[in-house]
Write a structure and sequence with these properties.
Largest sheet: 5 strands, mixed
Shape: globular
Low-confidence stretches: 7-12
Radius of gyration: 13 Å
Distance between the termini: 32 Å
Number of strands: 7
Strand content: 25-35%
Helix content: 10-25%
Number of helices: 2
Length: 118
């Protein structure tokens, strides 16, 4: 990420040795909305959309709108949030300590995610 282009970039290509992980999506009621497998290291937003899970996308997945905010279960094995993501969450009234932007989140191991719009 450079100063002239503050948007992080991401690839949908996982490392060839990446393990297969399970993503469980939980709705407001606490029930499982969807569960699917993906290769570890890939972008959560891309796979939620690919598997038919509704997720916000006003900025096309570049992290500026925060429409794709989700809660990752404690201990979820995901990439750490960077300053850009934390500021975007704050700017849109979300808690960067408990929420993530799916478009900037890579999944490294099994994880449960929830959203107040599922």
């Amino acid at each position: 990420m450079s100063e002239s282009n503050p948007r992080p970039s991401f690839s949908v290509v996982a490392p060839s040795n990446a393990q297969v992980v399970t993503v469980r999506c939980v709705g407001k009621s606490g029930s499982t909305v969807r569960e699917f497998s993906m290769r570890g290291g890939l972008n959560l937003w891309v796979f939620l959309r690919k598997h038919g899970v509704p997720v916000g996308a006003a900025c096309s997945g570049v992290g500026v709108c925060a429409a794709c905010h989700v809660t990752v279960s404690p201990g979820g094995n995901v990439s750490p949030a960077n300053e850009f993501e934390q500021e975007s969450l704050r700017r849109h009234g979300h808690d960067p300590q408990s929420q993530r932007l799916a478009c900037l989140c890579r999944v490294w191991g099994d994880v449960t995610v929830s959203a107040d719009y599922w």
